[in-house]
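Supplementary Data S3. Sequence and structure tokens for construct A.
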Amino acid sequence: MINKFKEKQFLIINLYLIFILLAFLSNNASAQSIAFVNQQKLLEKAPQAESARNKLQKEFAPRDKTLVGLQKEIQDLTIKLQKDAAVMSASAVNKLKRKISSLRRDLERDKEAFREDLTLRQNEELVKLQQVVSQAIAKVAEEKKYDLIVSDGVIYASKRIDITEIILDALKLKFNEKQ
């Protein structure tokens, strides 16, 4: 009988300790500050992203213009071949066909090189932008005393904890300081 009483007393004490521990943990958890940030939105709307897009546009515009000019030349020569083939000599027709074929190969080679170079530069600029965004998130987290900021893989985040706009404002401020 004494053993059963001690067992019940031990069980009650353990349950009481568990409730105290749970209450303590829930109080600490509510004191922690958690936020959500939509990194994709930041990567799209940050002024640094627009600046990077403009930089790439300026960097690759001359090559793009050259490719468009080469396409136009091929198109013009093809039209000329179709129109004038009947009045041209066989050797002139063959020479024009070879020239068109050669220009098409050059165009395809140049297009592929253009795509590869553009993709490489886009990736370089994306890495830079991701670093700037990560630094801005860390800075806001420290300033606002957030314990945890979550991003990708979140199924739901209320607007109350979404700090994307705060980070975006910090990025705009940083961008304007550099200007």
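Construct B, processed identically:
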Amino acid sequence: MKMIFPGFESPESAAPAPAWGGTLRSIAARDLDAVAALEVLCNTQPWSREALKTCVATEGRIANVAEREGKVIGYAVASNVADEGEILILGIHPDARRQGAGRALLTGVLADLAQAGASSVFLEVRYRNAAAIALYNALGFGEAGVRKGYYADTGEDAVLMHVFLNRGKKA
């Protein structure tokens, strides 16, 4: 049986991001301390600085930061294998949430994945993270499944979400 995913909308068709007054760029070595500190603020199971360093240096990875007023306020790391992308981690400083940085960062990463040849993208998100799920839905992601007990720290389920980057393509 072929699974049909609900996320057929391209991220380019989503509503425009609010003006958040920052810039997006690739993660540089000088950003690793700031990204590691944000990872601790944003996640209950944060990646270590060394894991981040290794991950961003791996071929096929897209790693970007959102920067405002000279400070890193967000980050995203994604992988691309063949024609499938995956958002591995994404975080926005708690004081910078709901100001458009997350939408801008995710839209930029999706565009980078499409340019790298991905036709679809998956991610996992905590079942109770309504704000993140709303953002992903706004960018065309749809629920593709549930990973029971995915998060080791709480046993919480993860919602598996998916989006097609090119309208009409099927997984």
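Residues 1-14, 167-171 have pLDDT under 50 and may be disordered. Helices lie at 32-42, 49-57, 101-115, 130-138.
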